[in-house]
Amino acid sequence: MTRWRYAAATDTGLVRDLNEDALYVDDTLAVVADGMGGHAAGEVASDIAVQVVRDQFAENPTVEGLYRGIETAHRIIQADARENPDHFGMGTTVIVVGLTVDSSGV
Protein backbone atom coordinates (compact mmCIF):
# COMPACT_ATOMS: atom_id res chain seq x y z
CA MET A 1 0.00 0.00 0.00
CA THR A 2 1.28 3.43 -0.91
CA ARG A 3 1.66 5.74 2.08
CA TRP A 4 1.19 9.43 1.52
CA ARG A 5 2.81 12.17 3.49
CA TYR A 6 0.77 15.32 3.40
CA ALA A 7 0.13 18.60 5.09
CA ALA A 8 -2.66 21.08 4.61
CA ALA A 9 -3.10 24.72 5.42
CA THR A 10 -5.66 27.28 4.40
CA ASP A 11 -5.80 31.01 4.81
CA THR A 12 -8.78 33.33 4.50
CA GLY A 13 -6.52 36.07 3.22
CA LEU A 14 -7.07 39.76 3.78
CA VAL A 15 -10.52 40.08 2.21
CA ARG A 16 -12.66 37.21 3.48
CA ASP A 17 -13.86 36.34 6.98
CA LEU A 18 -14.76 32.74 6.14
CA ASN A 19 -12.65 29.99 4.62
CA GLU A 20 -14.63 28.01 2.05
CA ASP A 21 -12.12 25.16 1.56
CA ALA A 22 -12.64 21.50 2.43
CA LEU A 23 -10.12 18.65 2.44
CA TYR A 24 -10.06 14.89 2.90
CA VAL A 25 -7.06 12.54 2.65
CA ASP A 26 -6.62 8.86 3.47
CA ASP A 27 -4.39 6.06 2.14
CA THR A 28 -6.19 5.88 -1.22
CA LEU A 29 -7.92 9.20 -1.77
CA ALA A 30 -7.20 12.92 -1.65
CA VAL A 31 -9.97 15.47 -2.24
CA VAL A 32 -9.51 19.24 -2.13
CA ALA A 33 -12.44 21.58 -2.72
CA ASP A 34 -12.30 25.37 -2.90
CA GLY A 35 -15.65 27.12 -2.52
CA MET A 36 -16.41 29.99 -4.85
CA GLY A 37 -15.59 33.09 -2.84
CA GLY A 38 -18.02 35.94 -3.21
CA HIS A 39 -20.89 33.54 -3.90
CA ALA A 40 -23.37 32.18 -1.40
CA ALA A 41 -22.47 29.11 0.67
CA GLY A 42 -19.20 28.13 -0.99
CA GLU A 43 -18.24 26.33 2.22
CA VAL A 44 -21.42 24.22 1.95
CA ALA A 45 -20.65 23.29 -1.65
CA SER A 46 -17.07 22.36 -0.70
CA ASP A 47 -18.22 20.17 2.18
CA ILE A 48 -20.78 18.41 -0.03
CA ALA A 49 -18.20 17.78 -2.76
CA VAL A 50 -15.65 16.28 -0.38
CA GLN A 51 -18.17 14.09 1.45
CA VAL A 52 -19.85 12.77 -1.70
CA VAL A 53 -16.60 12.02 -3.55
CA ARG A 54 -15.24 10.27 -0.45
CA ASP A 55 -18.39 8.15 -0.05
CA GLN A 56 -18.66 7.25 -3.75
CA PHE A 57 -15.00 6.24 -3.94
CA ALA A 58 -15.41 4.09 -0.82
CA GLU A 59 -18.24 2.23 -2.60
CA ASN A 60 -16.46 2.04 -5.96
CA PRO A 61 -12.67 2.58 -5.65
CA THR A 62 -12.05 3.02 -9.38
CA VAL A 63 -11.56 5.89 -11.80
CA GLU A 64 -15.26 5.50 -12.64
CA GLY A 65 -16.00 5.92 -8.93
CA LEU A 66 -14.14 9.23 -8.97
CA TYR A 67 -16.15 10.47 -11.95
CA ARG A 68 -19.39 9.29 -10.38
CA GLY A 69 -18.52 11.03 -7.13
CA ILE A 70 -17.88 14.35 -8.83
CA GLU A 71 -21.02 14.09 -10.97
CA THR A 72 -23.15 13.12 -7.97
CA ALA A 73 -21.73 15.97 -5.89
CA HIS A 74 -22.55 18.39 -8.71
CA ARG A 75 -26.18 17.22 -8.80
CA ILE A 76 -26.52 17.41 -5.01
CA ILE A 77 -25.03 20.92 -4.92
CA GLN A 78 -27.43 22.06 -7.65
CA ALA A 79 -30.42 20.54 -5.84
CA ASP A 80 -29.40 22.12 -2.54
CA ALA A 81 -29.07 25.52 -4.22
CA ARG A 82 -32.56 25.18 -5.75
CA GLU A 83 -34.15 24.12 -2.45
CA ASN A 84 -32.40 26.65 -0.21
CA PRO A 85 -32.57 30.29 -1.37
CA ASP A 86 -29.61 31.19 0.88
CA HIS A 87 -27.47 28.77 -1.15
CA PHE A 88 -28.48 30.06 -4.60
CA GLY A 89 -25.39 30.39 -6.79
CA MET A 90 -23.13 28.32 -4.55
CA GLY A 91 -20.34 26.35 -6.12
CA THR A 92 -16.89 24.91 -5.65
CA THR A 93 -13.92 23.66 -7.57
CA VAL A 94 -12.67 20.18 -6.72
CA ILE A 95 -9.60 18.12 -7.46
CA VAL A 96 -9.29 14.46 -6.56
CA VAL A 97 -6.61 11.79 -6.68
CA GLY A 98 -7.59 8.19 -6.10
CA LEU A 99 -5.27 5.20 -5.91
CA THR A 100 -6.34 1.64 -6.66
CA VAL A 101 -4.38 -1.58 -6.97
CA ASP A 102 -4.32 -1.47 -10.76
CA SER A 103 -4.60 2.23 -11.61
CA SER A 104 -4.84 5.78 -10.40
CA GLY A 105 -7.08 8.62 -11.46
CA VAL A 106 -6.81 12.36 -11.25
UniProtKB/TrEMBL annotation:
InterPro entries: PPM-type-like_dom_sf (IPR036457), PPM-type_phosphatase-like_dom (IPR001932)
Domain (PPM-type phosphatase): residue spans on this chain: 19-79
Pfam families: PP2C_2
Name the record gives this protein: Protein serine/threonine phosphatase
Organism encoding this protein: mine drainage metagenome
